[in-house]
Amino acid sequence: MSTRLDLSKLSLMDALDLAKLIEQEACQRYQMFASQLGTCGGYDAGAFFAKMAEHEAEHGRELEARRKTLFGDAPAKVTIDDLFDVEAPDMGSPRRGMSTVQAFEVGLAAEKRAYDFYDMALPGITDPDVRELFTELRDEEVEHVKLLREALEKLPPSAGDEVAFDLDDSPYL
Predict the structure, then answer these.
(1) Are 57 and 31 a contacting pair, CB within 8 Å?
(2) Kindly report the CA angle at 149 between 40 and 123, in degrees rounded to 5?
(3) pLDDT tens-digit series, residues 28-84
């Protein structure tokens, strides 16, 4: 989890752009996992990753709308190249046959990593608006972890079972 930016010098616009890009990076990673795993029907690991991609995309759209309201079409100074794996799950996380519970654990780890990012950045943030935004985003990650844990508890016992697969019919990871 890292950025190449000096977070203490972020403007509110830059902070919103960074937050949006963090969501975009996570969305793209989840989409890749969903594509790699496919789905076996029902709610399996691939379906979980597809749903996580939707959630990350929605959060990114909300941040983009907020940014547009405050700053219009001002060009962004922050790019996707300025960060790496802030909230995106680890590249090596998916594997053929992983259970839905294992997929949830990947999602939980990513949400916790995002919390840690915002929490560790806060002491160095001096701009009050950026500090408020990062506090809000950190607290949202707590809520995301809570929602994932609640959903995980509602899964049937079979969700912990790894999925059998046929090597001839499986996508390559």
Answers:
(1) no
(2) 125
(3) 999 998 898 877 767 788 888 899 999 999 999 999 999 999 999 999 999 888 877
pLDDT reported for residue 1: 53
CATH dotted code for 9-158: 1.20.1260.10
What letter would DSSP give residue 43? S
Residue ranges per domain, the chain? 9-158
C-alpha–C-alpha distance, residues 139 and 36, integer Å: 31
Contact 49, 94 (CB under 8 A): yes
What amino acid is encoded at 61 in this protein?
A: R
Phi, psi for 83 (deg, rounded to 5):
-140, 165
Question: What's the whole-model pTM score?
Answer: 0.84
Q: Looking at the chain, list the stretches that DSSP marks H as alpha helix, in order from N- to C-terminal side.
A: 12-37, 45-71, 100-121, 128-154
